[in-house]
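Thread: flavin mononucleotide complex, take 2
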Amino acid sequence: MDTMETILNRRSIRKYTNQKISGEQIETILKAAMYAPSAMNYQPWHFVVIDEREAIDQIFKINPHAEMLKEAQLAIIVCGDSKLEMNIDYLVQDCSAATQNALLAIHALGLGAVWVSSFPNKETVEGIRSYYSLPENIVPVSIISLGYPAEKVKAEERFNKSRIHKNKW
Ligand SMILES: Cc1cc2nc3c(=O)[nH]c(=O)nc-3n(C[C@H](O)[C@H](O)[C@H](O)COP(=O)(O)O)c2cc1C
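Output below.
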């Protein structure tokens, strides 16, 4: 798929079929995530891939905004390692760049996904850390809910010239 087509047509997908995602697809998605830019090129990310029903459902119990995960075939917790990047602001930006790369790869593969929030919600961060046994230096920044799409969400016009400023505000 053409890069601009992928970017302009990606939308959050919250309904999925029960078709399984292959190991090869997961590797492609995580490869895209790991090619994201990061401050000082520290690449401070880790990815927890969750494909067991009970473990996926647990995310919804921790974060009530993650109801779509009840249908999802897979969840990926994008985590930052504070031993690799000590500045939390950069850690979150790096993991966010990785998350967006993953979302674009997911769309390009014909799959659907939505970014589910984790950081900076303390309850979600601690709930995830506890249930999935993350070490203290690992911050769950975002969660990706994904599967084969069972809904179509149309691209919308977002180009807004009033947000562009030339040379000064
Ligand atoms: C930091 C962040 C947190 C988000 N958290 C949630 C969430 O918890 N639940 C959810 O359904 N969508 C969540 N979203 C998805 C947004 O609602 C969605 O991206 C936005 O409405 C724009 O729609 P689009 O993704 O289709 O372009 C999140 C997106 C971002 C960037």
